[in-house]
Amino acid sequence: MIVVNTETIPGHNILEVRGLVQGNTIRAKHVGRDIAASLKNLVGGELKGYTELLTEARRQAIERMLSQADQLGANAVVNVRFTTSAVTQGAAELYAYGTAVVID
Amino acid sequence: MSEELIITVIGILLPLALGFGIGRWRERSHLASLARREADNTDMIVTNLKIGPDPQSVRGATFVSGGAVIATDYFKTFAAALRRIIGGEMRSYETLMNRARREATLRMLEEARQVGATEIWNIRFDTSNILSATSKNKAASVEVFASGTAIIR
User: Fold this and answer.
1) Does the beta carbon of B72 lie under 8 angstroms from any beta carbon of chain A?
2) B92 touches chain A (CB under 8 A)
3) What is the tens place of the pLDDT at every residue in B40-69?
4) What pLDDT is attached to residue B82?
């Protein structure tokens, strides 16, 4: 499965558009990370736990999007975009969407 | 009475000194690491054009991304609070945003290198504050996410 955030795939032609595919995940962080983060606020620096959490959540959203594309019989997803939203206290939603297509 | 005053003063000054000292040192070493890794990656062509040069000879394309969450230190938070009173440029937060953006970009570049790409097209930057906006203690941090299409020739 080819995934790109451009509208076309260089070197390939889009034969068919199978429609919008999407994947989301909502993740809550745990208290331990919050405590570590508030300590980090004293001295600055990267919040590795949060970086991991967001990266892992984005990966999961992409995976869910890809399994939808698979069901539609697509072999590529183009024009992938991400949005995030704060759902409730201590939780974040990551949402990935794109267009499932068939390429040559 | 005077003891209480001393404890209060220490309570204010200690985090400030820690933030200023350790925060500044950590920022310097991070900036040095960024500069070193950026120098290693100058051969990679990076563009926010949707279609880069010579699309006919491209063999493969794949999605790459990188993210970073960077926290402010206590001194920067304090300096920013002072700046809010008189207005103007918030230098301390500017460097913070730039550090997060450069780190995210480098992680994306390193991912592209791993898949054997030489170029990245259609780069996009996203910032969010989901974790700080939803947390009780309002930990001040910036979250930057960089994504693009890695091109294999």
Assistant:
1) yes
2) no
3) 888 888 888 888 888 788 888 899 999 998
4) 84
Torsion of CA B132, A87, A28, B127, to 10 degrees: -40
CA distances from A3 to A65, A74, B2, B86 (A): 10, 11, 66, 48
Mutation target to probe the A interface, by most A beta carbons within 10 A, among B130, B138, B142, B152 is B130
Q: Measured between alpha carbons, how far is B100 from B127 in angstroms, rounded to an integer?
A: 10
Domain count, chain A: 1
The owner of tokens 């990245």 is B120
Give the residue among B67, B65, B60 at the shortest CA–CA distance from B118.
Answer: B60
Chain B neighbors of A58, CB-CB under 8 A: 65, 67, 145
CATH number of the domain at B121, please: 3.30.110.70
- Domain extent for B75: 2-152
Which of B29, B48, B63 has the highest number of chain A CBs within 10 A, making it the mutation to test binding with A? B63
B152 token code pair: 């294999």
